[in-house]
Amino acid sequence: MASAEGILIMTLTRRLFLAATGVAAVGGARAAGYPSETIKIVVPRAPGGGTDNLVRLMQPALEKKLGVSILIENKPDASAVIGASLVSKAKPDGYTFLLADNALYQNPAILDSLPYDTLKDFSAVTMVAQGPVILIVHPDVPAKNLQELIALAKTKELSFASGGIGASTHLVGVMVNLKAGIKILHVPFKGSGPALNALLGGHVTMQYGGINSAAPYVKAGKVLAIAVTGTHRDPSMPDVPTFTEAGLAGADVTSVWGLHAPPGTPIEIRRTIRDAIAEVLRDPALAKKLAEFGYEPIANTPEDHQVQTATLVRQWIEVGKTVNLKE
Length: 327
Description:
The protein has helices at residues 4-8, 14-22, 50-66, 81-88, 102-110, 146-153, 168-180, 192-200, 211-219, 267-281, 284-292, 302-320; strands at 39-43, 70-74, 96-100, 123-131, 133-137, 159-162, 185-188, 206-210, 224-228, 255-261, 296-297. The protein is an alpha/beta fold. Helix 3 (50-66) crosses helix 10 and helix 5 (102-110) runs parallel beside helix 12 (302-320).
């Protein structure tokens, strides 16, 4: 079995994105006459977080490409279960989708029960994008780098906000606690937006969040950036070190965002949506904006993402056997 450290970083490269988007021109059959009405994308997190920001950045271009309106419906809860459950029970007609974050793939390893079967009750469309997680602290915290923060956590009671149970922003906190030998209290919220508001209000010591929502506040000096996950610094925040550079290896968890449809949704419909997403992600203006927000496009095929989903679920169940993901 692979080590926990070895599978925590999901390596989806730009090479995969380019290969996947190339399939659009030569792929299988598409759905004739589809779509013809408004498409609803359910976001299981609150507005202002990474999942919500990603779909809203793509929304105008997708509407133009598909020729129909796209309704974004936020259904937040602390573990991203409510929105997922709604989509798992929706009609498989191509007009309801779930934009999931890490929680969909990791909840089977964290929650004792779910109102759906993650592998049977969804039809994969595409892994839309991935991105790093950033650790930010309130400016009043007497720690200016990761090692100072770890030292402080060994002498004082600290707390970290996350975008919810099972989110990458939760699991990075779990891994930092584990690798650093500290115990910082986890305070889950219904999305990275509310978590950031809690940090800005001084209700928590720190937050693990997305670069897209944190960057304006870092640049304004309202929060301090400590480190980012991943193997390299994010181009949008080049002065922020990786966790490994900051002296803590093995704590990386990458944020991922996958699009899923209800079970039984025809492959032709899923290919149509995936191909539209792949095409809009190739647009230079949108690609630049996504990079500024810390997103790395993927857009692999429905078939690949179905396999990917099963792999991720299995991997996190294995990790959960050796790491307490419920903290």
